């Protein structure tokens, strides 16, 4: 072979190697901002206010990219990750009940790989520093209203309530950090629960708080987070999950709507609360929305620890009427319902003999109002569970509105699940354009109307 040929081959070898290295490097850098012109890097140099202004402008001029919000849009969309997962296909009409993948035989021992420069972590939420870090990640990056002016503002106490129910699993608080500075940039959690799906009673996890840092969006971190969480959940011998989302992915078990009832109408108008529509003029709407000053149900009082057993049996009887419902233990009733300031409120009705006849609960969703001269925060009360055996639900919920208003909430929100339609319109709730879709992972069953859903999954 001539020297020139050897040279040529070596040059080809070198350029092949260079190409391979380049490819390898590109793979490693998958989540890394690319060079000085990278928009994320440029954005990072700006102040938070400037970033918000840019986001707002982008939103105003955007043609609405992102995941489908309706079934119609979803039918035309290609889900490259979800198509690989044990979930029903969009458009299939399901008549059977059961797991999609029978018994998960061998669970992968090692975690899924992350691009170079990132590592998995397990957040120990009993550690105040880690809890605070999670709070910061979520408050800066979790769902914002579409026009980026209202952003969720979770408190430490709220996160402990939502993520540490009885038997919570530390390894299912799954996080991604940047190696260089240990910054938390991704999170997904699962909490254990028992649920009833039609006739089947199943041990599941409820998946919550999926969040990817804004600067690492659209880089496919979500599929890795979901796969790793699934692996960790499978290690616990659980192969089923339930979750909710505002977007449509394959395949909703039920699609529900949010209904809103203003409590502080003026403020909602001032902060341009999304989806608030005045059917008549302001004065008339204020009059229509006026609530009584005091509650009217005799025996209505805040829940105490002594009410756990009474609520447990009332809810147990009430919730098994639905196709999808939680199977709560007394310990879980105590966790989810016992009042905690600025987290969860529960009221019970007791007769003269002390018998507990009714219960109603709502949780606190706090938000930060961005770029407003007067208002900095907004408080939504979200209906959790209600169970009535003696009081008309319309009266009980009207009293609940009065109580929520007196506690400083600005708006009361409820889904059209369970028997809620019975009181929503009567109490001047109006339907919003926001949907919440319920999903099951690795379980096949016919889909259901919202009024057959008896499970609430506070985020
Ligand atoms: C939701 C979020 C994590 C998605 O991140 P992203 O950077 O846009 O998406 P990625 O590139 O990482 O991953 C895309 C894949 O994740 C899936 N995905 C995105 N959001 C999802 C969601 N909320 N639920 C289920 N799957 C979701 C997409 O369908 C896509 O898979 P596909 O190819 O099968 O369609 C991110 O937008 C975020 O943190 N948003 C704020 C918090 C939030 O809305 N959390 C979800 C609450 S339900």
Automatic annotation (TrEMBL):
Keywords linked to the UniProt accession: Acyltransferase, Cytoplasm, Membrane, Phosphoprotein, Transferase
InterPro entries: Acyl_CoA_acyltransferase, NMT, NMT_C, NMT_N
GO cellular component, one term: cytosol
Catalyses which reaction(s): N-terminal glycyl-[protein] + tetradecanoyl-CoA = N-tetradecanoylglycyl-[protein] + CoA + H(+)
Enzyme Commission no: 2.3.1.97
Region described as Disordered: spans on this chain: 1-40
Membrane topology, record value: Peripheral membrane protein
Domain Glycylpeptide N-tetradecanoyltransferase N-terminal: 103-256
Sequence ranges assigned to domain Glycylpeptide N-tetradecanoyltransferase C-terminal in this UniProt record: 270-450
Molecular function terms from GO: glycylpeptide N-tetradecanoyltransferase activity
Location in or out of the cell: Cytoplasm, Cytosol; Membrane
Key word GTP-binding present: no
Biased composition (Basic and acidic residues): 1-18, 28-37
Enzyme class: transferase
Functional description taken from the UniProt entry: Adds a myristoyl group to the N-terminal glycine residue of certain cellular proteins.
Family: Belongs to the NMT family.
Family matches, as PANTHER family: GLYCYLPEPTIDE N-TETRADECANOYLTRANSFERASE 1, N-MYRISTOYL TRANSFERASE
Protein name: Glycylpeptide N-tetradecanoyltransferase
Species of origin: Anabas testudineus (Climbing perch)
